Amino acid sequence: MKNSETDLVAVYIGLGSNLENPVLQIKSARTAIAAIAGVEELAFSSLYHSAPMGPQDQPDYVNAVMCIATSLSPMELLRCLQYIENNQGRVRKAERWGARTLDLDMLIYGDQIIELPDLTVPHEGIAERAFVLYPLSEIAPQLPVPGKGNIADLLAKCPMNGLKRLD
To answer: Total domain count for the chain?
Structure first.
């Protein structure tokens, strides 16, 4: 575990919600993430409206990306993010891509490539998902995505697919 301020790592987190007032869920999650010991918020994207992945018989999503600096290890941060999801009413079901009050995904953790049973970073779908790439590029337009390439190049290959920025 890192424990000095010089060992802070930049981490990008994807936030998504489509149940129980999604905008409020995202704003509450932002506050909760920033309040984690060993975490400092560096940037937060606009909110975006997107159609659901997977089953279409669910409400549309609100998405955003947050950049933090942290001294926490990837697994420590993951546990904190899962705690926040659970605290905001997240129910994990067998069905992938179902409706949820809150989904927090660790998109990028510094320049690391992590492949563990409970955590894959960069997030496995990062290069194909407009609702991740557009808000990510808004706050980090020059970001290299470890093992995937430059954010601008990934964005050029990813149509917006109905993604809309909320004002």
So the answer is: 1
Range of the domain at 76: 5-165
Query: Which member of 105, 118, 129, 153 is catalytic?
Result: 105
User: Which CATH number goes with the domain that contains 48?
Assistant: 3.30.70.560
d(CA 87, CA 102): 10
pLDDT tens string 74-90: 999 999 999 999 888 76
Of 111, 132, 129, 133, nearest to 121 (Cα)?
111
- Examine the residue annotation and report whether 90 is marked as an active-site residue of this protein: yes
**105 is a catalytic site residue:** yes
Question: Residue 70 phi/psi, 5° resolution?
Answer: -145, 155
Active site includes 100?
yes
Band of the pLDDT at 95, cuts 50, 70, 90? low
Among residues 102, 105, 131, the alpha carbon closest in space to that of 119 is found at 105
Question: Residue 52 burial (CB < 10 Å; 0-12/13-18/19+)?
Answer: middle
**103 part of the active site:** yes
